[in-house]
Specification:
This protein is about 40% helix and about 20% strand. It is α+β, with helices and mostly antiparallel strands and about 250 residues long.
């Protein structure tokens, strides 16, 4: 990921954002402790994240599903898998958008990957908004509470990791889940294919990964919800995590 601008205004915003990450609870059981030292980063993490917040996540490596070479501690980065290595593009051109989506979804069933799709027009809006606001925090509901995920949207990719892991490891945090958007059929069929790869199956289930992609899309594409994303990225001092819970119909435990 390209380094963030060092301009005075942007530096101020990201300094505020760094402080904001301290305020966002990593799980529902921490909501009542927002004012405690639980959320303060140690000096070591402050040093790790001083250059930019949320951080240079492209240190996670290229995206896709193939695992290659060592990276960080106990993590192997992902390498982009071209769409032509997944399906026959020429044959795909002869299919209707509906048939192509059905083939794409069926192909990914039971393979440890997530297959989704979206309209090209919506993808372009997502791309436009993500270019301006790359980061967000998303509560992932589990049983009687939630765990908070930290998302980076830098199309054609989305990356997700646990906020708790990011706070603990900074830019060395590994992604739990990565999604790649393929635009080869955007012009001819108004269709963008999405492939999700769960890096750590112990961290996320297939259903949870799918929900994260769909929810992130809704946060960026819904005008009302996108205001929360804008606030998080541009006016972090005015951001309230409880507003996200409310938008997603989750109780503030």
């Amino acid at each position: 990921m390209q380094r963030l601008s060092s301009g005075i205004r942007r530096t101020s915003v990201f300094s505020s954002l760094r402080n904001l990450l301290d305020e966002v609870p990593t799980s529902s059981c921490l909501l009542r402790k927002r004012s405690l030292a639980t959320f303060s980063l140690g000096q070591k993490l402050q040093n790790q994240t001083r250059e930019a917040i949320p951080g240079d996540f492209l240190k996670w490596g290229s995206l896709g599903f193939c695992r290659t070479s060592s990276f960080a501690t106990g993590f192997t980065p992902l390498q982009l898998k071209p769409l032509e290595n997944i399906l026959d593009i020429e044959r795909g051109k002869t299919k209707s958008p509906e048939d192509l989506v059905s083939i794409w979804d069926d192909y990914h069933l039971g393979r440890g990957h997530i297959g989704l799709s979206m309209k090209a027009k919506l993808y372009r809006l997502l791309q436009q908004r993500a270019a301006d606001c790359r980061y967000f925090v998303i509560p992932l509901w589990r049983g009687s509470g939630y765990t908070t995920m930290f998302a980076q949207v830098q199309l054609p990719h989305m990356l997700f990791t646990g906020l708790e892991d990011y706070k603990a490891r900074g830019t060395q945090a590994s992604p739990y889940f990565a999604a790649t958007f393929y635009t080869e059929f955007a012009e001819s069929k108004d269709l963008v294919l999405i492939r999700g790869d769960i890096v750590f199956t112990s961290k996320l289930s297939d259903d949870e990964a799918k929900w994260l992609v769909e929810t992130t899309q809704s946060l960026y594409l819904n005008d009302t919800r996108y205001k929360l994303v804008e606030r998080f990225n541009k006016e972090p001092r005015n951001f309230e995590f409880k507003d996200v819970l409310q938008a997603l119909d989750m109780p503030a435990l």
